[in-house]
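Q: For a teaching handout, I want to show students what a protein-ligand complex looks like in token form. Below are the inputs, and the small molecule is iron/sulfur cluster. Please produce the holo structure.
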Amino acid sequence: MTASTTTQAETLVQAEGEPPLCTKIMGVEEEEEPPSKRRLPLKDRYFSQVPDTDWNDWKWQFRHRITTVEELVKFIPLSSKQQAEIKLVISRYPFAVTPYYLSLIDPSDENDPVRLQAIPCFKEMTMADLGEEDPLEEKRDSVVPGLVHRYPDRVLMVLTDICPMFCRHCTRKREWQHGGWVRKDEEIEPMLNYIRNNPKVRDVILSGGDVLTLSTERLEKVLAQLRKIEHLDIIRIGSRYPVVLPQRIDDELCGMLSKYGPIWFNTHFNHPNEITSEAVRACDKLLRAGVPVNNQTVLLRGINDSVETQLKLSHTLLKNKVRPYYLFQCDEVQGTEHLRTPVDVGIKIIEGMRGHTSGLAVPNFVVDLVEGGGKVPLQPNYVLSMSENELLLKNYEGKVYR
Ligand code: SF4
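A: Here is the structure, written as tokens, with iron/sulfur cluster included.
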């Protein structure tokens, strides 16, 4: 995939001339608070001196992402050994987290589910020989640079490699080394042309990196062009902004999106602790703009690999009108082995959910096949035997029915 470095101009907000972030480390709480309480107000955990106007400004959040060990250690206690290890990891797989997402981490808990997604782990290096760089072979299916056409009726447009946070389990972490690029108009035009000339394509997925890193104006240009293509039914946006930088979902963005529907929005909550009042507000704004929001969770070891956590995640999403859509088996990507579970963990989770709660709360558990084989849904086995005259089925309680 070729890409142009634009020094993040236009979309990235320059930090030049900004005073250093004035931060206050709050330290470890003396009394343990229930998660629902300790999430509010988030800002006060580490950033009590930051004015609300800055905190609620997505460009401020983006400019002040924490990207080095030296900055990180001001917030999260790290031994010298841990600091040295993280530096090594960052030399291969960069690190970035927004102040907002960092504020979800309990500094006293090394196994905090948000921490495990955001802060580099030495196992990314020591287990890096397990897995592939690009197991889904997205490069092979690129029909023009940045446009992946694998399934008959839908295409994936990759418009940037920039994300507000680098999720440690990311399938595209191979791209992080390339330093931050946004497609230029002259690169987007061949993608649009391909779609214009392929009437079978009825569904376009805008992704990245994270496509909401583009300015609202720039994103609108792409959406306006796509909407002129008559055979295109729906546009989907894949973005983790509602989770890691919900301030991005502002009135300007939602007003713009409302003009180009039907747009479906797929986001990526992995743990109930991520569903804060800010995140809920972001999803609600999208819904009010006529943009349905679905969630795609990645199954991650030590983060959300239990029935209890998945039930809580699904129920909290549904309460906030977000549909739990997919539960993905973590792809076999280099540098993510320590976060991957065996496939049967996912099947057992679905078994523990199906029938025990409403079907709406049960996501589709899928594995994305290596070599670009596509997504395959996996289910617990409810069919005990099937012949011409007889079907033996097991229900969610294990009772057998003929
Ligand atoms: S937001 Fe998505 S693309 Fe970006 S780092 Fe996270 S998982 Fe990867």
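A: Two things your students might notice: Residues 282 and 374 are 31 Å apart (CA to CA). Residues 163, 166-167, 170, 172, 208-210, 240 surround iron/sulfur cluster (CB under 6 Å).
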